Amino acid sequence: MAIGPRPLAPLLFFGLAPVAGWFVIRPLLEPLPSIPALYSCFGFSVFAFLATIHLVPALGPIFIKANLKGRDLLKVYRNDLEVYVVVFFAERTRA
Length: 95
What we know:
Strand content: 5-15%
Number of helices: 2
Shape: elongated
Number of domains: 1
Oligomer: single chain
Helix content: 40-55%
Number of strands: 2
């Protein structure tokens, strides 16, 4: 029996997405906030967080199936670790 990713709470997405949208759109409305770039940065950070918590569990099995592995260079032992993080420039190494 294969273990799948844990289902995410819809309340997390439906609760944070409007808040993030408000922070992105708020600097465009009058009166302008004192630091509009801070509002936008926070809104886009929340969107990036939501994308990460939804994509990493969904793409983890794909990385494992493609045999993409990484090595923790700070450890003294040489065990390979599966990569569960979304990587943009992945190089497939052959042992």
